[in-house]
Design goal:
Layout (H helix, E strand, L loop, with lengths): L2 E4 L9 E3 L12 E10 L2 H8 L10 E2 L3 E9 L11 E4 L2 E2 L5 H4 L10 E2 L11 E5 L3 E3 L6 H6 L1 H14 L7 E4 L5 H12 L3 E6 L2 H9 L4 E4 L5 H8 L5 E6 L6 H7 E9 L12 H7 L2 E4 L5 H12 L7 E6 L3 H10 L5 E5 L6
Helix pairs in contact: 4-5, 4-10, 7-8
Amino acid sequence: MRALTIDEHGSLDRVTFRDDLPEPIVAQPGDVRVRVAAASLNHLDLYVVAGLPGFTIAPPWILGSDAVGEIDEVGDAVTNVKVGDRVVLNPGIGCGMCEYCLDGQHPLCLNFAVLGEHRPGTFAEYVVVPATHVRQIPDSIPDPLAAAFPLSSLTAWRMLVTRAQVTAADLVLIQGIGSPVALAALQIAKARGARVWVTSSSDDKLARARALGADEGFNYLTQDVAREVRARTGKRGADVVVDNSGSASWPSSLGALGRRGRLVSCGGTTGPIVQVDVRRLFWNQWTILGSTMSSESEFHAVIDEFVAGRLVMPVDSVTPLEQGREAFERLASGQQFGKVVIQVAEADG
């Protein structure tokens, strides 16, 4: 089997294409095997390559969380899909039996596993997952769009809809537009009627975000984002700030946040350690929300939005599996706008 793997943590030169791996088998009655057509990268993949605290791999470790493909084999207990169905994957898998899973809060499961991090990933010709974690989609949707969709859109949906509960009355500030989570957050917030302002270090990305519906954009290299937001709102500030950058953007995120504001975070791409002046926290009655991945019900809600054409992730580039390291380098450069996709299936003929 062809796949993109690492044998140990380190720099991106550890990312290796292999064509000699055994194909995974369907060992559980509720599992399915998917023949992967295309997959896409997330910042998580960079973290897995570099190494995460307390995280170990069994080489050769297959990378990747997102994918679209065709059901190739089903377990005896599977009834929701059949061989030949075209599906996308929910990359986050709970145990299904703990108090959190039974309450529909799968990302809180103490045994929560993410494809490519805790289980073999999607940058391979085949991947085996529980049948509950696939959803059929129309054949008319191109592979790159389908592969680019799941993890980032699921993350953004939980952040804005479930956690921050964005409404039409809100002014939403999204830090770092151009990342897939930020782009999905932009679309979700606009669909809920909110005003949306975005930030970037690239004027080109700001222009492209405006074309997608952003109401205003700020270049954080040349503008003081917090000061601009307060000046343009009569010192009121933003109702919701979406931050997945961490230490670099945290001061401006809090500086832009208004009274009763909600700051929702799903990552720390620029650093995990942040500071909060507790006096400002209680005086302004802020709410700081953590969020990650999605529940199974959120997965279906987001796929409904995607199939209806209301939530579509821009594709930055498509790279063949054999040249997968180049896709990692593209993502690591920070120059991408949207998802970096890997074409897994070989061309016919």
